[in-house]
Design goal:
- The structure is a single chain.
- This protein is mainly α.
- The protein is built from 10 helices and no strands.
- The longest helix is centred in the first third of the chain and has 20 residues.
- The chain is globular.
Amino acid sequence: MKIDMEEAMRTYGDMVLRLAVVNTKDRTAAEDVFQEVFLKLFRYQKSITCEEHLKSWLIKVTLQRSYTYTHSPWNTSTEALFREEDLLDEETEETMSDTEKESDVTRAVMGLPKKYKEVIHLFYYEELSVKEIAEILGEKEATIKTRLARGRSILEERLGEVYAL
């Protein structure tokens, strides 16, 4: 499959950036991850077989690059420059829709442990099925369902029944 890089960036760029912002909690780092993901796509585009494969490949690489960023020696040895309640600064909000900006749910999702945040984000924000998420993350469907249930439970505790998913 020949990939039109401009079309891929138009189609999936927002998704990649949103996923990177949620996982790095840092707009600048997310932009770096975004660039690295699309550079990697340019290098490995011949290995992509179809449109579905492209989307899942981009998600997987974005998650991997975000993880690499957040677990680098530099980031693990320095203190965060922001408080948890400031996670959604003005720059971060630029990548989110108006509904997401106004939502306490978005803040709560960003505050979840990584394994729950990933599945909640992919399921609700990227609208992937449990099966697709399991394939992307290399997990069993039952594991994904459990993480979704536990993530929802944590969100319900933090937000109250008004926001129950």
